Amino acid sequence: MKQYIKKSSGLTEAQFAAIEQLEAVCNRADGLTMKLNPEKLRERSTGEINDFLYYVDEQPVAYLALFSFNKKEVEVSAMTHPDYRRQGIFKQLLAAARDEVNRRHIPDFLFICEQRSAAGAQTVQAVGARYDFSEYKMILEEAAQPPSTSTALDLRPALAGEVAELARMDVVCFGTDFEEAKKWIAKSFASENRRMWVATLPGITIGKILVSLTGHETFINAFCVLPEYRGRGYGKTILSRLVAQLVGDQHPLISLEVATDNEGALSLYKNAGFEISTVYDYYRLPPGS
Description:
The protein is of the alpha+beta class. The protein folds into 2 domains: about 5-135, Gcn5-related N-acetyltransferase (GNAT) (Aminopeptidase); about 145-270, Gcn5-related N-acetyltransferase (GNAT) (Aminopeptidase), CATH 3.40.630. Helices cover about 35% and strands about 35% of the residues. The chain contains 8 helices and 12 strands. Strands 1-2-3-4-5-12-6-11-10-9-8-7 form a 12-stranded mixed beta sheet, sandwiched between helices. It is globular and about 65 Å long.
């Protein structure tokens, strides 16, 4: 029986299809909702290794994915076919990923584990990872009506020439590195599956929101309003207008994620018609550990 790890810089269509099949098997077996960011998998850079597949007789039976959104940490999603668990495969994949993360001088792994997965939590804790924070995944159940009050706020598609302004917004709202934010936003403009929207008042941009299309799911993220314009109902207006448009365009499944301790955002999303579907826990581990 031939067993080996394949490190990939970018995924072939065959690899992507095998990963989707493995995800479906694991989700059915465990009753979970794997967080694999399929639209990002399809846009992998060929300049760095982010995908680690474990093969048995030319069939991938386990997979570990790295997602790097900043220089401080790299998010990790992983799965193993139920028939091949408890054989040390995850540790082998993690060792291969550790070499790559150390080479890139990234300080921390950030493992993503659905809260309902007791086995997943035990696995990441067994390698020394410690709980850091949690996020709710929320799904739109019934869209609330957009605000009827008139407002000068306008919501429009972002322009490619606004990359620097949008990146500065990420710095202010999320603490993101400016250069990293510019790269990520530029990729969004280049992607066929992402749409960036900006919220403006006369003469000034006050917020933004991103929509990612993943085939069966439409994902809302990178939503922010500049601090000096919060508390005035603009966030509610932006979200409800966008949701109304997505519903009108027949997007069947609309979702988003929010930190469990972000009470203001959680209230905003619930009022817009979103309900909690699952919880993802994040566990942190320095790769040198």
